[in-house]
Amino acid sequence: MAAGAGKKNWFAIWMSVAVVVVLVGAGAVVVWMNNQASAPGPAPDAAIVNEETGAIAVGDGETVVATYIDFMCPICNQFEEIYGETLNELVADDSITLEYHPVAILDNVSQGTEYSTRAANALYCVAESSPEAVTPFVQAMYANQPAEGSAGLTDEQIIEIAETAGATGVTECIEGGTYERYVATQTANMPADETGARGTPTVLVDGERLTLTGDPQIDIVDRLP
């Protein structure tokens, strides 16, 4: 028997242990990265934003009108044109609290730029930095709505719209996509219809989903106490 043949090969053992440690470590990194990718992300630090529901609240009325909107959605723009003036008047006289829920269901029709997500993120940025600019920003985004299927507005254009609407200090938040993961979470959690489908605009009055008729008086005003 050769000298040392009966001894353990400690080098081989330690190498095996090292390989196992590396593999376990790599697995932990993968798990951590997956968790980070699916994490909801930070919520806007703003008094008008409900961290749990993602609602951006404007007004102090007893009745809550919740609107789920996608800034790429042409029907959402039509909703703003038909209902916007009435909703803003009801906010102004304290009849309702208007909730904006910016979501992103049309990222797949913006040529890979994820315009819906970026625009929704921008609304949260505005809500955090300049709450008084929220409604003017929403109106301006619809006034400058890109065509569905286009690349959408650039971050620079969105920043310019935000600043024109009265927002300040939003550049880093918009360019950095600070709330994009938060937008993804709120989009996944938005209410579905009776078939399980999610679409925009979705409008609820005190939690009751509306079938819109195109008449603000019937759909909103007549429901007020």
Give a verbal description of the structure.
There is one protein chain. The chain has 225 residues and is α+β, with helices and mostly antiparallel strands. The chain is 45% helix and 10% strand. It has helices spanning 10-38, 74-92, 115-129, 134-143, 155-164, 171-175, 180-188, 216-219, and strands spanning 56-58, 63-69, 96-102, 202-205, 208-209. The chain is globular, with a radius of gyration of 25 Å. The N and C termini lie far apart (98 Å).
Question: What key phrases describe this protein's structure?
Answer:
Glutaredoxin; 8 helices; 225 residues; disordered N terminus; 2 domains; alpha+beta
Short description:
The chain has 225 residues and is an alpha+beta fold. It has helices at residues 10-38, 74-92, 115-129, 134-143, 155-164, 171-175, 180-188, 216-219; strands at 56-58, 63-69, 96-102, 202-205, 208-209.
Corresponding CATH superfamily of the largest domain: Glutaredoxin
Q: Which CATH architecture of the largest domain is right?
A: 3-Layer(aba) Sandwich
CATH topology name of the largest domain, in short, is: Glutaredoxin
Approximate strand percentage = 5-15%
The helix content, as a percent range, equals 40-55%
Class per helix and strand makeup = alpha+beta
- How far the N terminus sits from the C terminus, by CA atoms, comes to 98 Å
Q: What's the average pLDDT?
A: 88
Main β sheet profile: 5 strands, mixed
CATH class of the largest domain: Alpha Beta
Integer count of domains: 2
